[in-house]
Every structure is written in structure tokens, then in C-alpha cells.
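Sequence only, no structure available. Ideas?
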Amino acid sequence: MQTSYLMWAQRCLSLGLAVLALQINVAPAGAQDWPTKPVKIVAPFAAGGNVDVTARIVAARLQAELGQPVVVENRTGAGAMIGSEFVARSAPDGYTLLMTSASLTNSPALFGRAPYDWQKDFTFVSAVSFQPLVLLVNPSMPARTMPEFLELARKEAGKMTMGTAGAGSFTHLAGLLVEQRADVRFEPVHYRGTAPGLVDLMAGQIQFQFEPIATALPLIKDGKLRALAVTSLQRAPALPDVPAVADTIAGYEAINLLGLIAPARLPAPVLAKLSAAMKAVLQDPTVIRRFDDLGTEARFTMPEAFFEIMRTQADTWIPVIRKANLKLE
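Reply:
I predicted one. C-alpha cells follow.
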């Protein structure tokens, strides 16, 4: 019986080694040939929004680098977790990618559930864009500087109204960070997206709102709204005359980071080729100009650097969410 068991074990070992050898010989060859069919970038937010627009700019240029069509598919819901989970569960073959944002780390904290582990279930490819916001006020507001704004907020004792793109949105979190760093309180007014809030802000129904620079610029230039401060550490090139919030609240920074990720265990040859392609995309002058027009900075990073940036984002925003006891359903 012992001899039969040893023979069975030897046959299993031989079979296992054969399968392993087959995987070693086949997988790299397939990876080296990647891509041989269309590549999909999942945008976990609705069409026309910042993430979707960024994904489409990247896709248009990326397909020229890869020699295959690159399509964008919107999978929305649950603060981007539906689209993110879909990609996390997809095959790690380089054909399904995700255009992600701070929602990757923030949404599990906001909803109190984690359908994925953002640190383990994804391969990080590259950052794509860094987008500061601008603090907009109605031109009738008496505060004309950030210190005056904070002084007015303290006088109003929590009654100053702040428009947001929705509870837990990045524009909301930017306001919460001001509250927590400057010891002031605002009255949030949540909308479905920033556009309705801008309408109410121009009508004087609310007092301020954080807004991506790209959509704010026309309203600022037309004098319909006034830019009080930007959320980057330094002044933004698109608004050189507008100071940073950090000039008043030391270290304050709220950057809407977007980047490209893939399922975990992406083969190294695919990651290397995709990383090189993204470097070419994000250093293309036409792409850089497109991002400039959106008030964002196109920025390529190596995969390890992108992971560390996301870790920093998580270390910034998750404590803000928890301190505010912010929970979504």
C-alpha cells in the first residue's frame, strides 16, 4: 500500500510540475503579445463627469499607443464601488482597467462596507491627473479673503451654507477639511452634482461651494461668481491671482486625484507595456493641453509611486470622514 501511495504521489507531483511548466511557458508569451483585442476602461461615474471625461481623453490617445481600440464603459453606483468591484473581480489580463479617484479609498469608509481591498485587489498603473478645486462665493459676499471668510463663518456659527455635489462627494470633503482644520462649521446643502449648486450660488440661495476649476472658470470670468481660494498648496496656473487655502490654513490641500488601475496580479510584461504607454499618453502635448483646459495637471507616475500617493490620500480623507461621522446608505 505504501508503494502505491508513493507512486500516486509521484504521479501527482509530476502532473503538478507539468501544469506549472505549462503556465510558465504560456502566460508570459500571451502577456508579451498583449494587447491582441480591444481594451476597456471602466469609468465608475456617470457619462459627462470628470472621471468619464478623463477616461475618454486617455482612451483616445492610449489606443494609438497600443494599436488596439480602447473603449470606455460606465458602471456607476455606490460611490463608484460598483465599477471598482467589477474591475477587481475581472481577469488580470490587461483588458479591463479602471479610471479611479479618491473614491476608491473613501467610499468603503463612507458606506461602511468594503467589496474590495483597495491595497490588495488592484494593480496600480499610473496617476493620470491632479485637479485642485476653487472656493467660489456669491459676488455679494462681504468676505473678500480667506481670513475674512473664516471670520464670517465663525460669526454665523454654523449657519453659513455650503453647496456640495452630494454627501460624501469630494467637494463635500473639501469643506469638511476646512471645518476640521479651522474649527468652523458650515450648513451643507447637498445636490446631485455641482451644477444645481452653482445655479443656487449665483442666485444667492447658498453662500459658497467648492468646484473643479474647469467648470468654475467661465463663471469667474463673467463675474457671476468670485474665486476666493484654490485647494492646491500653491496657486493654480489657471487662476494665478487667486491665493491658496493653504496660505491661511497651513498644509491644507484637497486635490482630486485620478489614476489608472487594473485587477491584482497583472502580469509584469503587461504592466510594463501599459506603464510605458501611459507615460507616452500623459507626456503628449495635445493631452497636456486638454487637461490644462480642464484645470487639471496631467502627471505620469510609476506604479509604486501611484500606490503611495493613494495611500497618502487615504490617510488624509478617511480620518476626515470618520471625524465627521459621515455615513451613506
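The CA atoms of residues 109 and 322 lie 8 Å apart.
Hope that gets you unstuck.
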